[in-house]
Amino acid sequence: MSILIKKGNIITATDNYVADIFIEGETISAIGKNLNVTADEVIDATGKLVMPGGVDPHVHLDMPFMGTYSSDNYETGTRAALFGGTTTVIDFVLQKQGNSLQAALQEWKERSTNNCVGDYSFHMAVTDFNDETKKEIRHFIEQEGITSFKTFMAYKGALMIDDRQMIGLMEEVKKHGGLINVHATNGDMIDYLIAKHKSEGKLSPLYHYLSQPEVTEAEASERFVEMAGYTGCPGYIVHLTCEGALNAVRNGTYRNQKVFVETCIQYLILDASLYEREDGAKWVMSPPLREKKDQATLWAGINQGLVQVVATDHCPFMWQQKLMGKDDFSKIPNGHPAIENRIELLFSEGVNKGKITLNKFVEVASTNAAKIFGMFPKKGTIAVDSDADIILFDANEKHTLSASTHHMNVDYSGYEGWEVTGKVKTVLLRGKVVINNDECKVEKGYGRFIKRNKVAQII
């Protein structure tokens, strides 16, 4: 099967030009002006932006949490991602304390294999680092193609590891060419504040936010940056939200240190005032939404090169699931649906409002994640021999986000009624048109597990 995309405005992290793209099989075979080739299908992209498919390196599909599961499974979640222009996601395998990493991977494979519509990979979340776990690290990097390992500095008794385990894991991961992701918040301080607020009868969603003040994230981020600097292990802070945490990363640059930073679309455009609404549980996530000044810091951080990735931390729960915590904020399942909205919101609020350039948009929505997590140049760019993961985007089409029209398996939207400018029109994944005219053209099982290479590329 061959496809010729004609006269599109091709945008990559570095380029902006009009040309044709010739696709043979799953990859791009030629790019040029007025290509003289014969194709099975011709797509006229005149007037459209033609960009690499999005890479979202932070999603939680069919994830067990607080006695329930996130409402998007691997089929619905990866399909919704495709509708939103994201062709590859990276999910998190969560090790159970006392069990092996391999046992955790097997559990996640049982839920994901042959169920994905879009391409996917895994990070391994290490919640119990010991002598046996240590022996598994090399196998995961060299054989499984899982080269990133997540740690939690919060959720004590379930997911959190201590600093001793963190240092040991960093040294082992560095030895074999991997990378450490971290949820950087001070779990002990958060647990203290949760207990304090509950003892005072302060139980509304607002107190989820007030139990995780900026200092809890800033302190943990500083500690992680210091440990990564000491061990020399590549580090990546997930879902960074605030000025204090980004300043911890900035301080690391004074020591010539490189720590990668991810923020999420919600932290760029939503703020903590939502927790005062009656339906504030919709935005209960960890870390919580922050203040307007933090949004300004994050946009600036993107342009300064301190923030490399805009992801989602997509972890949706139905409203009835959220109501598990209607009388106690600490029982609200943490998570926010955004896998389908990320690309269009980032374009509308970032590019369209002059906060970032088109090239920076592609960089933080696709290219940088592909580089950091060992998928570039197969993913994350438009180039000869790259996978033909391509989105055709109408930069001028206005539309309104709503739960009534989205494809995520969740019965509300965190962006209900939000008017955006810019719409994903056509999506190709590995040379096949998978989304066109708001219709999905492939079934579950088309998505492929992506084995990843060692060591993040320096960007």
Blueprint of the fold:
Blueprint: E1 2-11, E2 16-24, E3 27-32, E4 41-44, E5 49-52, E6 54-59, E7 64-65, E8 68-69, H1 74-83, E9 86-94, H2 101-112, E10 119-125, H3 131-144, E11 148-152, H4 163-175, E12 179-183, H5 187-199, H6 206-210, H7 214-231, E13 235-237, H8 243-253, E14 259-264, H9 265-269, H10 292-304, E15 309-311, H11 319-322, H12 342-351, H13 358-372, E16 390-400, E17 419-429, E18 432-436, E19 439-440
Parallel strand pairs: 1-4, 1-5, 6-9, 9-10, 10-11, 11-12, 12-13, 13-14, 14-15
Antiparallel strand pairs: 1-2, 2-3, 5-16, 7-8, 16-17, 17-18, 18-19
Helix pairs in contact: 7-8
Structure description:
- By secondary structure, this protein is of the alpha/beta class.
- The chain has two domains: 2-51 and 387-401 and 420-440, Urease, subunit C, domain 1 (Roll); 54-372, TIM Barrel.
- The protein is 31% helix and 24% strand.
- The chain has 13 helices and 19 strands.
Mean of all residue-level pLDDT scores: 97
Provide the CATH topology of the largest domain.
Answer: TIM Barrel
| Approximate strand percentage | 15-25%
* Residue runs with pLDDT of under 50 for 5 or more positions: none
Number of strands: 19
Count of separate DSSP helical elements: 13
CATH superfamily of the largest domain: Metal-dependent hydrolases
Largest sheet features: 9 strands, mixed
Q: In the CATH classification, which architecture of the largest domain applies?
A: Alpha-Beta Barrel
CATH C-level of the largest domain: Alpha Beta
So what's the overall shape? globular
Straight-line distance between termini? 34 Å
Please identify the structural class as seen in this structure.
alpha/beta
